[in-house]
Automatic annotation (TrEMBL), chains A, B:
Listed name of the protein: S-formylglutathione hydrolase
Protein's UniProt keywords contain Hydrolase: yes
Enzyme class: hydrolase
Gene Ontology molecular function, alphabetical: carboxylic ester hydrolase activity; S-formylglutathione hydrolase activity
Classification via Pfam families: Esterase
EC number: 3.1.2.12
Keyword terms: Hydrolase, Serine esterase
Length: 285, 285
């Protein structure tokens, strides 16, 4: 049973590029746990509300990987864009097996709503990211209701499904090395099987390639993928995303980047292009 | 007894902003231990030798803090500047007390040559940073002999003393929140007392304020210091640096930055200005 959501409580604050990077904790109604998130408020937010880019991180991450390693605050400060980084799973619970592997349970919530015990009680990261967190952000911070979404790997796919399942909710979407077709790769099969159970039909509501076929809104997808990414062929499968987009007539800019791997050095290199993409959609350019 | 130096052996490689961030290990003659360092080679290094900025990190750090958190590779790739990041102490030894505190022993070498047992055998970070590492870099990588040096906190002071003690060796120097006057602050007293012994006169050869008084080369100092830095008044003492420079006529641009703390978010905010400072001295602008 979920407890009610509580107001965000500040736990850390650092001035950065003239704005402020702040970390908060709050009780989440979606997950029934305490959740931590980070928000970067650019200098412009001191005088007017600014739009928000939501960033969803990948397996093993917290809210801190992106804020420390992507170098995004520099351009966000120039553009006047807030960035909100949620955690990658509920924390503080201790279900059997929850902390035993890097690709399931803690830090691996996959941005779905689990239906299987014991996960269904807390692993509701989709509701948290799509509904609860934006509501909390828009009630408590100097931001507008203009939202974009991006992420990396598990979070890149999370960004795609959040946008595809919610027409009109985001102005733009992009992804770095997303797990494009989780119903057909080991990471996805493990996660969706665990959170959703054995009925593979039920997984399709959480797979970007499936969702693209029937999407009612066709926001252009910007996707960067390193060609030297160790997970490329077995887990990420950008060709499946490409085929799904071609079949459905969904606009996709898939940029294969020679020599780049799965790390934050890859993200840092191209995050500027993604922020520019979102800034245009958010009316900042 | 030191073993001979060995050639660098690649341990990691990531493409980043069109160049390559590489980590190497090698046996150091200075420290008698294996040492790890990182080098960022910008795209320009694929066709011609480039000058090098040496970055010295602070207490608790390794070569990785700067490469992951400062966001320096973006501008280094634009400017055509390599960046070399050594570790902050020898590793792999286990002297009594070596790993007991964050501000002495491992990850706290203070860029001095220790004279006291048991530290004198391995804690020779000054020789390593000033002589051995640049020789190794210039023999093994596509770089020129044009060098600049910068760093943070313990490493900010390290950069100052490396430059002040070696006229002509560096084209430029800068520092973030340096421990400006270690002979007069708790961090410095603990480190210099441990590595150099009780004779405080011997410490003066490793204190930037003392060295400024008699410097034979007066490279302009660029120093950024956050006004909200928790270590400002007790440990960092920029006013001592300012007084030493004023007394000696040493050029100093000390920039007090309102609201900024001691973190890498502070460094990331101003690293661009420092790279521009070094780029001019290195003939890149």
């Amino acid at each position: 049973m979920s407890e009610l959501s509580t107001a965000p409580e500040l736990i850390a604050s650092n001035k950065c590029f003239g704005g402020w990077l702040k970390r908060y904790k709050h009780q989440s109604a979606s997950t029934g746990t305490e959740m931590v998130f980070a928000i970067y408020l650019p200098p412009q937010a001191q005088s007017k509300p600014v739009p928000v880019l939501y960033w969803l991180s990948g397996l093993t991450c917290t809210d801190e990987n992106f804020t420390q390693k992507a170098g995004a605050q520099r351009l966000a400060a120039e553009l006047g864009m807030a960035i909100v980084c949620p955690d990658t799973s509920p924390r503080g619970t201790d279900h059997p097996g929850e902390h035993d592997s890097y690709d399931f349970g803690s830090a691996a919530g996959f941005y779905v709503n689990a239906t299987q015990a014991p996960w269904a009680e807390n692993y509701r990261m989709y509701d948290y990211v799509v509904d609860e967190l934006p509501t909390l952000i828009e009630e408590n911070f100097p931001v507008t209701d203009q939202r974009s979404i991006s992420g990396h790997s598990m979070g890149g796919h999370g960004a795609l499904i959040c946008a595809l399942k919610n027409p009109g909710r985001y102005q733009s979407v992009s992804a770095f090395a997303p797990i494009s077709n989780p119903i057909n790769c080991p990471w996805g099969e493990k996660a969706l099987g665990g959170y959703l159970g054995d009925d593979r039909e039920s997984w399709k509501a959480w797979d970007s390639c499936e969702l693209i076929a029937t999407a009612s809104e066709r926001l252009p997808l910007l996707v960067d993928q390193g060609e030297a990414d160790n997970f490329l062929s077995e887990q990420l499968k950008p060709e499946a995303l490409k085929q799904a987009c071609e079949a459905a007539g969904h606009p996709l800019e898939l940029r294969m980047q020679p020599g780049y791997d799965h790390s934050y050095f890859f993200i840092a290199t191209f995050i500027g292009d993604h922020l520019e993409h979102h800034a245009k959609a958010l009316g900042l350019k």
